[in-house]
Amino acid sequence: CSREDADIAIAQWTQAFGIGGNVDPRVTINQTIPLFVALMQKDPAIKPLLARVNVNDVHSAEFGAHVLRVVVGFDLCISALNDGLVLNEITSHLAKQHAARVGVKREYILGFFQATLVALPQLADNFNTDAWYNCALPIFEAIAADLH
Ligand code: HEM
């Protein structure tokens, strides 16, 4: 993840999900819900893990709040791409939070990376797959580091 890759990944993520700009957070939430829905269709074992955040109604305020926590958490990571020490602190914290949730598997987090690969080209101009692989994939891997 070169400095150039990082800058591209940050810019395209920000454009697509609108965090840090003037985009209504409801837009961000509505764009992210289908990623979780696709993940759960692929692997139904994910659904019970999200029962506490009202996954039975993905358009509920509770599920929206959960999705926003995920996006904001990921945004913190992406925004720290040019500061390895900070990035490491954030991903370590996220890794611990997920390791504490029994049933969350490494493949779910990596599946979420794949879901972003499908969604981002539709949301960002001239989406750069290489930059996303080089810079975003290591973030997902770091979040999954303590999972099996
Ligand atoms: C880049 C990807 C992800 C990020 C940045 C992320 C971030 C977060 C954050 C910030 C929380 C709240 C933690 C807390 O307050 O304790 C959370 C909770 C959680 N995440 Fe993730 N998450 C990601 C992907 C996933 C995926 C793919 C799954 C699939 C199973 C998942 C499962 C959970 C569960 C089960 C919780 C707890 C829900 C609850 O409050 O009951 N996460 N995540």
From TrEMBL:
Keyword Nucleotide-binding found:
no
Q: Which domain of life is it from?
A: Eukaryota
Xref: CDD domains: Mb-like
Please provide an example of a Pfam family that matches this protein in its UniProt record. Globin
Annotated Globin domain residues: 1-148
Listed PROSITE patterns: GLOBIN
Q: Which family does it belong to?
A: Belongs to the globin family.
Q: What is this protein called?
A: Extracellular globin
| Species of provenance | Ridgeia piscesae (Tubeworm)
